[in-house]
Amino acid sequence: MNAIFALPEASTQAVRVDGILAALVIVSALTLALVFGLLVSFAIRYRRGSKAKRGRLPEIVNREFEVGWTAATFFLFAFLFWWAASADVGALTAPANALEVHVLAKQWMWKTQHANGAREIDELHVPVGRPVRLVMTSQDVIHSFFVPAFRIKQDVLPGRNTETWFQATKLGVFHLLCAEYCGTNHSAMRGRITVMREEDYARWLSAQPEGDDLAHVGAKLFVSQGCSGCHASSSAVHAPKLEGLYGRTVQLSDGRQVRADDAYIRDSMLQPKRDIVAGFDPIMPSFAGLLDDGDIQSLTAFIRSLGQEHGHD
């Protein structure tokens, strides 16, 4: 049997995707069988020379049949659309207790970093039964993070962050592929995800070389890049304070409101004059060309570590 039809269901997302696919295949097969069955039976019954009775059905029968068939198909396909769309929307937001892993794609490798600073290349170790949130960006061109056994695929774009999440349900090693043509060695951009028991994952994580986590790296960049001169709590410069910024609703000078998420923070570093915070002058310089994607991830993690608020200004 071709391996594509024997992929394991190794995540909660895989179960949902396979269920939707099975339902679509069954509905399509039944519809096809009904249409072709009617076509063949009518072709035989009403062939030239047959004595089958011909004539129009009563108008009320025609009308009721047409209305019933149209309504039935509409509600069936509306249900299928809602079912599939809800699964896709659910895949956009990771649970609050998810492990956060940062992924940096580049020609032609996957670089991953865990919350404690542990780094991997073309590999990712995760615990079974626990949701994992992936925050991803690309250093060069468009890539696509694809794990067939988990039924997840998410484009990884230069200049912005994208996210996806999964919860592994089976132990083992699973292929990680790039599903977007990204250059001459696209086919060699492969990796693997190792799903481990919780206690084995904890031992593996503690055995990794010590290194600063993203927030600590970001704190050093915050000072070395001069950000603390304006944004530190002790600064005399009239600039937005960052404590409690992440997750908060920010009022802009043009009347709009935006949520201070990863994308907003990234844009504020690279295009600071696009979204000016109400009450502040547009004096911040752009850091485009001065910060790479890894630096932006680290600075974002540092700002997030300063606290989150879920209310409004």
From TrEMBL:
It catalyses: 4 Fe(II)-[cytochrome c] + O2 + 8 H(+)(in) = 4 Fe(III)-[cytochrome c] + 2 H2O + 4 H(+)(out). One of its GO terms (cellular component) is membrane. It is found in: Membrane. GO terms for molecular function: copper ion binding; cytochrome-c oxidase activity; heme binding; oxidoreductase activity. Keywords: Copper, Electron transport, Heme, Iron, Membrane, Metal-binding, Respiratory chain, Translocase, Transmembrane, Transmembrane helix, Transport. It is an enzyme of class 7 (translocase). Its EC number is 7.1.1.9. Gene3D superfamilies: 1.10.287.90, Cupredoxins - blue copper proteins (2.60.40.420). The chain crosses the membrane at residues 20-44, 65-85. It comes from the Bacteria. It is a multi-pass membrane protein. The keyword Transport applies. Residues 213-307 form the Cytochrome c domain. Residues 96-207 form the Cytochrome oxidase subunit II copper A binding domain. GO terms for biological process: ATP synthesis coupled electron transport. InterPro entries: CcO_II (IPR045187), CcO_II-like_C (IPR002429), Copper_CuA (IPR001505), Cupredoxin (IPR008972), Cyt_c-like_dom (IPR009056), Cyt_c-like_dom_sf (IPR036909), Cyt_c_oxidase_su2 (IPR014222), Cyt_c_oxidase_su2_TM_sf (IPR036257). Subunits I and II form the functional core of the enzyme complex. Electrons originating in cytochrome c are transferred via heme a and Cu(A) to the binuclear center formed by heme a3 and Cu(B). Belongs to the cytochrome c oxidase subunit 2 family. NCBIfam families: CoxB (TIGR02866). This is cytochrome-c oxidase. It comes from Bradyrhizobium vignae. The lineage of its organism: Bacteria, Pseudomonadati, Pseudomonadota, Alphaproteobacteria, Hyphomicrobiales. The gene is coxB.
